[in-house]
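Dear colleague,

Following up on yesterday's call, I've attached the two folding results inline so they're easy to grep. Please treat them as preliminary; we haven't cross-checked anything against experimental data yet. The first protein's sequence and structure tokens come first.
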Amino acid sequence: MRHAKLSEFHYVPLSSSEMQKVYVDSKCVLDSPQAGQLGLTIRVLEALGAKKKLITTNADVVNYDFYSPENVYVYDERYGFDFNSPFFSSDYKDIPLEIYRKYSIESWIKRIFEENI
């Protein structure tokens, strides 16, 4: 894709039900934040919520409490893929329920209102 032309790509928006089906049918989600972006992208949170494995270029993800090498692989183009990583040899590993809930939309809304009261 490095030498592909923009005209060779066709982008068609997906409906929310089509997007949900993509997640259901997927084993892994790819995440590549824009240069200079800080924190987590919505793609990371969607993968977490869908209980899907994640490949990301965001090295900071290892500092979050949901991180596990079985579920999250940090890709660095300088080194390529390490296919000996537990990520590639294991199934998705459930994270503790309290951590899973911490990243839910419900928890996020509660924190916003609690902090602003």
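Below is the second protein, in the same order (sequence, then structure):
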Amino acid sequence: MRFLLTDEQREFGRSLDALLTAAGTPAVLRAWAAGDHGPGRALWGRLADAGVFALAVPEAYGGLGPLPVESAVACVELGRHAVPGPVAETLAAGALLGGAGGPAAKEWLPRIAAGTAVVSLLLDGHGPYALDADAADAVFTVTGDELRLAPGPGSPVVSVDPARRLFRPEPGGEVVAAGPGVREAARAAGDRAAFATAGLALGCGEELLRATVAYVKQRTQFGVPVGSFQAVKHRLADTLLGLEFARPLLYGAAVELAEGPSGAGAAVAAAKVTAGEAGYAAARTALQSHGAIGYTEELTLAWWLRRARPLRDAWGTPSACRARVLAG
């Protein structure tokens, strides 16, 4: 297996980094958390122009994919910049609607690829909440062999990350596909969502580590930078190792997904648990290394700190992923 990215894939990641750096995502995050989705939707449009959402949509529906490796590159960058919205869910909708087929796929997949539709999902076995349902153009739910379009976003619930808003979608809704194919498509969509979330968690952890290293070089104690202390160095080194171990698992899962989604579940679970735990460990290191300032709302990094644990648990808790790896 080849885990090294090509020059084109690396350039794709660099172009997304430049785009998101210029976009100023902290301001977009604050607006999203306050219920103003305008800046976020505008950013989604620019990401769609770069081809991000088309990567998960089959070519038959106007997309470029599925291209799991390129999707992983994109998700890491989106995680590094904490792009708000149901990113993993919208990407996973490519597998759900593409697998289920029918009029819903023809209606929604071209819009997802073009960036004009934001989609959230609620699948059997993946918890009771749909992420950012109030901002989504559609919330698809799967129960058994039925794929439905939820009639409304439902009621919100408290979230650790105010820019990741959780909702209980209203029950019922129009049945847009039914049959055994729906169950299989939902299983594939769950894997795609877990895979995308692993990329987001890895990127989140990378940004937390980068910001922490920069901070400990500036913060002084006893007349020297705190980053010169052995205890701090060791903690940062452990954090880096965790993130670097997660990276090949993410791209290994991408390779297996590209070869065929049916046998990639264990690889996706391994990537998800490793990236999720590494990102959360990076958050703990960042919080401890920043000291009391790490708790403040004024610190921009707080948005990444609050995101790491939800990403660790979304679309497969660590215990669930480990059980799947062992079973696989």
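For the second protein, one point worth flagging: The chain is about 60% helix and 10% strand.

Best wishes,
A.L.
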